[in-house]
């Protein structure tokens, strides 16, 4: 892989396909500038300056475009890079792509530009992963966390932590090699303190990252309740459009309806479920079973009640069902607040909000939902994916084993486990560089990145 990266010039369309004002064709490799000179008939480009050019298809003018040349190593890949900003639409960009291929470029694979940036030391693995995740981020908060990761915050933490562990390892090796010498009495306690401090920090990072998983994956919010209490009206009010059928006939919604909406900078998948009640209708019973199952899959549950009527047996069963899901964020929505109330909020087992979905008077509910999904922007290190979390878990496991060996005075085994911890932590930024592993890691990137 490395030899190919050093010798070939790759090309891809970096912008999304379809109609748009501008499309970008990106080249990287030793012949990038030469190829661009061929299709523009220009012989000189000033690095990092935008140059207006004509693109030629043989002897015919194809397009007028902006070309930016990035001279190695001051480029995204640390290779010679040219970006052709042509007029949008699929036809022009694809023809320019074909022209570059005819001049000797090869079509880039998914993520190959970023892979070259990684192989050439421009970025480490955590930064490469941040780039990939930013493209598909589901919330502004995720974008902010990933921007810090791309800046190098996680890399800096990993490097500083590895340096601290290497310092402790050096102490251990000295104690092993010079066991008969007089060494400082507090050396063991100092080593133990450094490890315990890092353990605590890593445990806090894992805890914070577990709470922030929904920032990257999005949240699921289910709307439940018995038939005809206004669930579909509430969904339509949240979406600000008529997505669900509204009817006075109980049981109108017999299956789940899913829509996605951004609330407080976080993507929510909102699921309007079938009404929950005692029913003999086989089709309706299937919908009710799906509604109950949906609660288990949701992080937030809005249970809707008709506040203009006293609670009945179906309502009580729903409240009992919710009691078995106290790990969820549960909000009782007392709908039809425009009518005289028949339900007392202080008698209910969960937080309740009164509103009128029919009149789209849902501002208090929306503010509460924003509060549930939003997090503090000043949090420290947050791990953004499963591989980073696994690396930290394995690091902690090795540190715990090292701590036991240190307490037992087994310095050789202590050093071994410490080396394991250092290796696991290092995988966050610099994994084993095998071709198959790298191809797998970068294969999930989009084309042209």
Automatic annotation (TrEMBL):
(6S)-5-formyl-5,6,7,8-tetrahydrofolate binds at residues 26, 83, 122, 449. GO terms for cellular component: cytosol. Its cofactor is K(+). Mg(2+) binds at residues 232, 253. SUPFAM superfamilies: Folate-binding domain, P-loop containing nucleoside triphosphate hydrolases. InterPro entries: G_TrmE, GTP-bd, GTP-bd_TrmE_N, GTPase_MnmE, MnmE_dom2, MnmE_helical, P-loop_NTPase, Small_GTP-bd. One of its GO terms (biological process) is tRNA wobble uridine modification. Binds 1 potassium ion per subunit. It is found in: Cytoplasm. GO terms for molecular function: GTP binding; GTPase activity; identical protein binding; metal ion binding. K(+) binds at residues 228, 247, 249, 252. Keywords: Cytoplasm, GTP-binding, Hydrolase, Magnesium, Metal-binding, Nucleotide-binding, Potassium, tRNA processing. CDD domains: trmE, TrmE_N. Its EC number is 3.6.-.-. GTP binds at residues 228-233, 247-253, 272-275, 335-338. Belongs to the TRAFAC class TrmE-Era-EngA-EngB-Septin-like GTPase superfamily. TrmE GTPase family. Exhibits a very high intrinsic GTPase hydrolysis rate. Involved in the addition of a carboxymethylaminomethyl (cmnm) group at the wobble position (U34) of certain tRNAs, forming tRNA-cmnm(5)s(2)U34. Homodimer. Heterotetramer of two MnmE and two MnmG subunits. This is tRNA modification GTPase MnmE. The gene is mnmE.
């Amino acid at each position: 892989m490395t030899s190919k990266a050093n010798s070939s010039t790759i090309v891809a369309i970096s912008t999304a396909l379809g109609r748009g004002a501008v499309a970008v064709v990106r080249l990287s490799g030793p012949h990038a500038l030469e190829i661009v000179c061929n299709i523009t008939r220009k012989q000189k480009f000033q690095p990092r300056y935008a140059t207006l050019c004509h693109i030629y298809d043989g002897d015919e003018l194809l397009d007028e475009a902006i070309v930016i040349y990035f001279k190695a190593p001051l480029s995204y890949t640390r290779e010679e890079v040219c970006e052709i900003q042509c007029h949008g639409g699929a036809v022009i960009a694809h023809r320019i792509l074909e022209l570059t291929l005819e001049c000797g470029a090869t079509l880039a694979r998914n993520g190959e530009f970023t892979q070259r940036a990684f192989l050439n030391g421009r970025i480490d693995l955590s930064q490469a992963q941040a780039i990939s995740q930013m493209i598909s981020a589901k919330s502004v908060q995720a974008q902010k966390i990933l921007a810090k990761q791309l800046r190098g915050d996680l890399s800096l933490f990993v490097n500083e932590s590895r340096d601290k562990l290497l310092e402790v390892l050096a102490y251990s090796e000295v104690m092993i090699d010079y066991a008969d010498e007089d060494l400082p009495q507090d050396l063991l306690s100092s080593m133990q303190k450094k490890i315990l401090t890092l353990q605590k920090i890593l445990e806090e990072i894992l805890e914070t990252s577990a709470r922030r998983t929904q920032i990257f994956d999005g949240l699921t919010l289910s709307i439940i309740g018995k038939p005809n209490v206004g669930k579909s009206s509430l969904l339509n009010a949240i979406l600000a459009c008529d997505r669900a059928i509204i009817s006075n006939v109980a049981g109108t919604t017999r299956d789940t309806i899913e829509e996605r909406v951004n609330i407080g900078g976080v993507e929510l998948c909102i699921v309007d479920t079938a009404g929950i009640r005692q029913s003999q209708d086989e089709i309706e019973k299937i919908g009710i079973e799906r509604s109950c199952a949906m609660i288990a899959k949701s992080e937030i549950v809005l249970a809707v009640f008709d506040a203009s009527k006293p609670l009945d047996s179906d309502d009580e069963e729903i409240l009992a069902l919710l009691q078995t899901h106290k790990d969820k964020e549960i909000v009782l929505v007392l709908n039809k607040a425009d009518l005289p109330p028949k339900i007392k909020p202080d008698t209910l087992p969960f937080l309740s909000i009164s509103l009128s979905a029919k009149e789209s008077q849902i501002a208090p509910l929306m503010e509460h939902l924003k509060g549930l999904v939003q997090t503090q922007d000043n949090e420290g290190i947050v791990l953004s994916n499963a591989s980073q979390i696994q690396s930290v878990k394995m690091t902690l496991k090795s540190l715990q084993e090292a701590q036991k060996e240190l307490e037992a005075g087994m310095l050789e085994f202590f050093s071994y486990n410490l080396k394991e911890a250092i290796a696991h932590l290092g995988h966050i930024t610099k994994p084993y560089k095998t071709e198959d592993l790298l191809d797998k890691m970068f294969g999930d990137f989009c084309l042209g990145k």
